[in-house]
Amino acid sequence: MDMSDKSSYERIESLAIWNTPDIKNFDSLNPDDKVNAFKNVYKSNFFNYDWIEDRNMNAVVVACNPGDLLPEGEMMNFHGPKSSQDARLASVLYGTKFWGSYMTDLSSEVSSDIKKVKLDNSNVERFLKRIREVGIADDAPIIALGNKVFEAFCNYSGNKFNSSLFSVMLGKHQVKRVYHYSGANPHWKWDIVRKQITE
Questions:
Q1: Domains annotated on the chain, with CATH
Q2: Could you give the percent of the chain with pLDDT greater than 70?
Q3: Which of 30, 39, 190 has the alpha carbon at shortest distance from 198?
């Protein structure tokens, strides 16, 4: 499938690319300043379709489902209002192999109450089918944002989820559990999440 056209992307799909701060010494900034640098240039409800040229189909970022504030238009998931804290995610993916990667949700159900969203093996099967369709490598690393998504992958792969488990294999895919970037998540700290992503 040709993913160079925005019309090829489903409603819940996007790419892990956002506006980037013009800062030469980004790596030397403290974690809060890194997040703030991305917050300062973040544009709500915006995706620049020229970014599609820089897509990275060798890695995947997957969350549970789109929230109630999902904007209209192609590729707007993960690029919503500032209150969604997508700038946090942008800041921690910047400079890693996940920058530019294919992004999606396991469920297309629109809800900001994650407790109402049910995930089972059918969600994982649909996800695996879709990433094959869009040309993701069969050994591409996958970031699972949050416990609920990671637990769905654990169940599908026959692994028992527990709080100390941060990686499972799904075929040739390594799936990493990463703390969700929601502002309501007290566990999210830039340096901790960066380590989860890069190790």
A1: 6-21+32-198 (3.40.470)
A2: 100
A3: 190
Whole-model pTM?
0.96
Q: Is the pLDDT of residue 1 over 90?
A: no
- Residue 157, CB-side half-sphere exposure with 13 Å CA sphere: 19
Nearest-Å Rg of the Cα atoms of the chain is 16
Q: Cα–Cα distances in Å, from 169 out to 141, 142, 154, 155, 159?
A: 9, 10, 9, 12, 9
- Rounded (10°) CA dihedral 76, 118, 93, 12: -20
> CA–CA separation, 114 vs 96, rounded Å?
28
The token pair at 112 is: 């900001």
pLDDT in tens, 14-48: 999 999 999 899 999 999 999 999 999 999 999 99
Query: For residues 102 and 13, is the Cβ–Cβ distance under 8 A?
Result: yes
